[in-house]
Specification:
163 residues; 0% strand; elongated
């Protein structure tokens, strides 16, 4: 137990930091996915009959136009962003990065600002996949998540926290 506690508290070792960042990011991604897909299914419909999650879980979905699906993809992404980003912030402060480069309020604003840039870039990529290539929402979501991860790590490590 002491070894685990020490590993969780260690914030200077770059390799361990990236592993913890990835694990915390996995938790935040799970929150994002849960909120996004619940919203896409129940609140702002963005899933089609061909979507892999719909087929796997046998979900009933509304038939919607591509334009409505893209708009709702954005709405669902924004709502999921709020919840997953708060999760990521708390986990990053406790387990990954050293706070104190900025005051707590500035740090939180910068954290959301970097995440907003990654959300916009990733959601734009996902929207293009839907509109240009008619890609299913689930695959568009994966592209959004991958691009957001890359932008977030760099911004958080170098701009917000003590690397």
């Amino acid at each position: 137990m002491k070894i685990i506690a020490k590993l969780l508290q260690e914030k200077d070792h770059a390799g361990l930091q990236f592993i913890k960042y990835s694990l915390c990011g996995g938790v935040a991604l799970a929150v994002d996915m849960l909120v996004f897909f619940l919203m896409a299914w129940l609140v702002f419909p963005a899933l089609t009959d061909a979507d892999p999650l719909v087929r796997i879980f046998g979900m009933d979905v509304q038939t919607i136009t591509e334009g409505v699906r893209v708009r709702n993809f954005w709405f669902d992404s924004i709502v999921a962003f709020i919840f997953s980003n708060l999760t990521a912030y708390v986990l990053n402060v406790f387990f990954v990065f050293k706070s104190g480069k900025h005051g707590r309020h500035v740090e939180l604003v910068l954290f959301y600002a970097v995440s907003l840039v990654s959300l916009l870039a990733g959601t734009f990529v996902g929207s293009l996949l839907i509109t240009v290539f008619n890609v299913d929402t689930s695959y568009s979501y994966v592209a959004k998540a991958v691009s957001a991860t890359l932008v977030n790590y760099a911004g958080r490590k170098f701009l917000i926290f003590h690397g």
